[in-house]
Design a protein that fits this description.
heterodimer, A: Alpha-Beta Plaits, 2 domains, six-stranded mixed sheet, elongated, B: MetI-like fold, binds adenosine-5'-triphosphate, binds magnesium ion
Chain lengths: ~325, ~220
């Protein structure tokens, strides 16, 4: 749905994007993580060409946006929704007026506009607030207005730059639930940027990690979790630095059993080993149960026990001595 | 001089001041508003970047603002004659008033427009809005309270400029105060004239503040 290739963006001597390739598939929620200054916002703003890339191409829904003229680009943008960290609502307009704004830009006649605004406010759960001004709304309500406005042109793609970063945890969860519902019900493809791991855990199907203008790793989350040395796994399930000889077991979607299956006690029973648990975490990520366990195995049959775990489909990494 | 002597003089002078201020306000907005938009839009990262034109405009505006009004008034006499065919009267006075107020108002407009958040402008761009739409439906409406405040300050300034313009043949309250109060030692008339000017300025400021406050939705 969104294909970015060889994307470069330089501000004078500052290279914000240094050859970024990204593929967001239709109907998925794709999260981009990275430290401050990694180039996440620049990447997002290049996707609808708010920022003109220095090099590379951006294709949305099969159209190469970098090749479009100004008028065509404006029309293409009407099919790409965007939501913002600080909501970016017009303070001079009511809620209904804000949602109507993109419809005015598209040239929709007034009577159809009113009806569409009503539908959109209904969709985001703000039916009673049409006449309110943004200043009278809570942060969560403002973001709902932002979402309704972004959906006005029936976009196939929604871009989100830290849309929940200005919200408290409870409100964040309700906005994420709304995005997930829109993704499911409307088949909306969402590319979002965040620095909150909870956002990735709660709604993303795929993820990418950015650093210094490059993508470090990208792909469906279960696949990334199953990749040895994945930085995403480190971010999702932080563990202290591995001591030499310790074993890190990652449970992922590809694991044949359930994450709460008692593999550890099975190992202890089947093999002549002792297991000492050093740390671990278990959570639902991308709809599957996943987690990591740091253990130390001692005993004659340690290697056989590790082999058994690998055979069960677990990712087993032994820190070198 | 009794009140019944003063009243017709005051009435006529107030009318002339009002005329000068109204006409020059109208033309100041007509020229100053687009100039203010241009000052913001032509920025390097503005809506229609034109850094060189921006620098020239900025320079012209600064020159206009740094000239004392009394000097400007005399300097533009040829322009006044060109436009109005005469150099005396309230119509003629409106020309230097407008020329003096346009750069002033344009700077205030520029400041008000810069108060509008970048993110709001970018959101509109992301929706596919054209530049004209962004100016008409985002920048100006969002800056409206600030623009009203700018207009208020400009009208007040024009009232005070008009007192000077009156002296070169425009009439009005300033001229009245100078002719009777200063040259004929009619202190009572002078004081009444000053009171009328103060009331006028106060009224403009109060109305402007009230409108601006009503429009603020933050
Ligand atoms: N308009 C600009 N002019 C100059 N440099 C810029 C501009 N926008 C971004 N940069 C630089 O590009 C780099 C990437 O910025 P970007 O905003 O994309 O980072 P980010 O990953 O979104 O960070 P954050 O998490 O803090 O929002 C930074 O070094 C930043 O200073
Ligand atoms: Mg950012």
């Amino acid at each position: 749905m969104i294909k970015v290739s060889g994307l470069r963006k330089a501000y004078g001597s500052v290279v914000a994007l240094d050859g970024v390739d990204l593929h967001v598939r239709k109907g998925e929620i794709f999260g981009v993580l990275g430290q401050s200054g990694a180039g996440k916002s620049t990447l997002l703003r290049c996707v609808n060409l708010l920022e003109r890339p220095t090099g590379g191409t951006v294709t949305v829904g099969g159209r190469d946006l970098t090749a479009l003229g100004e008028g065509e680009l404006r029309r293409a943008r009407q099919g790409i929704g965007m939501i913002h960290q600080h909501f970016a609502l017009l303070s001079s307009r009511t809620v209904a007026g804000n949602v109507a704004f993109p419809l005015e830009i598209m040239g929709m006649p007034r009577d159809r506009r009113a009806k569409r605004v009503e539908e959109l406010l209904e969709l985001v759960g703000l039916a009673g607030k049409a006449g309110a001004h943004p200043a009278q709304l809570s942060g969560g309500q403002k973001q709902r207005v932002g979402i309704a406005r972004a959906l006005a042109g029936e976009p196939s793609v929604l871009l989100s730059d830290e849309a929940t970063s200005a919200l408290d945890p409870g409100t964040t969860q309700s906005i994420l639930a709304l995005l997930k519902r829109l993704n499911r019900e409307l088949g909306l493809t969402i590319l979002l940027i965040t620095h909150e791991m909870d956002v990735i855990k709660a709604i993303c199907d795929s993820a990418a990690i950015m650093s210094e203008g490059r993508i470090q790793e990208a792909g469906p989350i279960p696949e990334l979790l199953a990749t040895p040395g994945s930085r995403l796994t480190d971010e999702l399930f932080p563990l202290p630095p591995a001591e030499p000889g310790s074993v890190t077991i990652t449970f992922t979607g590809s694991y044949s059993g359930r994450a709460d299956e008692p593999v550890v006690s099975q190992v202890v029973r089947k093999f002549d080993v002792d297991v000492n648990i050093l740390g671990g975490a278990l959570e639902d990520v991308a709809g599957v149960s996943a987690g990591r366990l740091r253990v130390r195995l001692t005993g004659e049959e340690s290697d056989a026990a590790l082999g058994y775990l690998r055979d069960r489909g677990l990712l087993v990494e032994v820190a070198s001595r | 001089m009794t009140w019944s002597d003063m009243a017709p003089l005051l009435w006529e002078a107030t009318g002339q001041t009002a005329q000068m201020v109204l006409w020059s306000t109208l033309f100041t907005v007509l020229f100053g508003l687009p100039l203010g938009v241009a000052l913001v839009g032509a920025d390097r990262d503005g809506l229609f970047p034109a850094p060189i034109a921006r620098r020239i405009l900025g320079l012209v505006v600064n020159v206009g603002r740094s000239l004392p009004f009394i000097v400007l008034m005399i300097a533009v006499i040829p322009v006044t004659r060109l436009i109005t065919g005469t150099t005396i009267g309230t119509g003629a006075a409106a020309v230097p008033l407008t020329i003096g107020a346009v750069p002033f108002f344009a700077r205030l407009v520029e400041t008000a427009l810069r108060e509008v958040g970048r993110d709001v402008v970018q959101a509109a761009q992301a929706m596919g809005a054209s530049r004209v739409t962004i100016v008409a439906k985002v920048l100006l409406p969002e800056a409206l309270p600030g623009l009203i405040a700018a207009l208020t300050v400009t009208v007040v300034t024009l009232i005070s400029y008009s007192a000077m313009a009156g002296v070169i043949g425009g009439g009005g309250l300033g001229d009245l105060a100078v002719r009777y109060g200063y040259q004929r030692f009619e202190t009572a008339l002078m004081i009444v004239t000053v009171v009328v000017l103060v009331v006028l300025v106060q009224a403009v400021q109060s109305i402007g503040d009230a409108v601006s406050r009503r429009l603020t939705r933050r």
